[in-house]
Design goal:
Layout: H1 2-10, H2 27-32, H3 71-80, E1 87-91, E2 94-98, H4 100-103, E3 109-116, E4 122-123, E5 147-151, E6 157-164, E7 169-175, H5 176-179
Antiparallel strand pairs: 1-2, 2-5, 3-4, 3-6, 6-7
Length: about 180
């Protein structure tokens, strides 16, 4: 990470590709694209009304509350911390895939979808926001674990798609070496 930032400082930042950015032709981007392959969707674009990413979803009002419960409030944080959306940890003979960073800002999200390797995207149910508490995004014990277990060494890539509560979206593909937790 340090070397990447150092390179950005001393080189033209536009010539460096972000290793965490989803390639334009990943299944995630195509899932949110219009029917025409000539017009790919870009991150933070509205989901198509009839796309698989937005069945029966409606955009929520975006009135900032200062409690980080809307897309307007959490999108800048999740965008800035994109490289930390997921982590892979080898523990007890398994690969554990963590989404703690995403869950910590879930109140501005409508949906989280994830795929391991070449599997299709699948919903990761988001715990409810705790609007009756001072920290609505807090992860409480009753919210469940912020990870899923897979066979040791089996996780090679992780594709993540976020649908914000204003129905905009963002996606990324992560390679195992880039998100390994020591």
């Amino acid at each position: 990470m340090f070397l990447w930032l150092w390179t950005l400082i001393f080189m033209d930042a536009a010539s460096i590709t972000d290793p965490y950015e989803a390639p334009a032709k990943t299944p995630v981007i195509q899932a949110n694209s219009p029917a025409s392959p000539a017009s790919p969707a870009s991150p933070a674009s509205p989901a198509a009304p009839n796309s698989p990413a937005s069945p029966q979803m409606q955009a929520e009002p975006q009135v900032p509350s200062g409690r980080f419960t809307t897309a307007t409030e959490v999108r800048p944080i999740l965008t800035a911390t994109k490289t930390s959306w997921v982590g892979v940890r080898e523990y007890d003979g398994q690969d554990l895939v963590y989404v703690t960073q995403i869950l910590a800002w879930r109140c501005g999200l409508a949906r989280l979808r994830m795929a391991i390797n070449d599997a299709p995207l699948a919903d990761w149910p988001l715990p409810p926001c705790h609007l009756d508490t001072p920290a609505p995004n807090a992860i409480l014990p009753e919210d469940g674990l912020p990870y899923r277990a897979f066979p040791l060494g089996s996780v090679k890539t992780i594709t993540v798609e976020l649908i914000y509560d204003d129905l905009s979206s963002d996606a990324a593909v992560f390679l195992r070496p880039m998100v390994m937790i020591p």
